């Protein structure tokens, strides 16, 4: 995708982190009236890229991306980035933090005092359903990953089963990570985070759990190589 390639060229010489970028999904607008723009920023120990729909093709970090015509949650697609911490353990600890204000938190703390039951998600995978009066949090584990879907049933169960089915054939980065879906009225806000050494990588999609999953499994070091991990 040209906007991602442009963003990674911008980032490459501005950070000491070994950057990663998604090779999937390839987003397609609903009509030829839309293009994809990117905002990128980077420092020695972090970088971040945000993707959004635009009314016309725009260069990287164009001021027009912040204008009312192009900005706003309706035009938000998703993004990816990374942060480097002082130690490997500090990066792992950050995985399990719920940060207020996150558009799509990658970890959701299971609610205290909720009733719990086991739920079969397909392909031999069994999760835990933390039930509350107005919603459920479904949690399961794949390798070193913790995966969660929060929302009302049966929608939450359906999304969890869709992810289990996808990950049965498509592998997440082979390290410790978290992925969480928050089902809301304007989309399934989804984020994934994982650690390599002292660096925490992330990707997220504002609308679709499956598109975020595709992005996570497709992350590669930039310049793109066949390596899935260091």
UniProtKB/TrEMBL annotation:
Domain of life: Bacteria
Name the record gives this protein: Uncharacterized protein
Upper taxonomic lineage: Bacteria, Bacillati, Bacillota, Bacilli, Bacillales
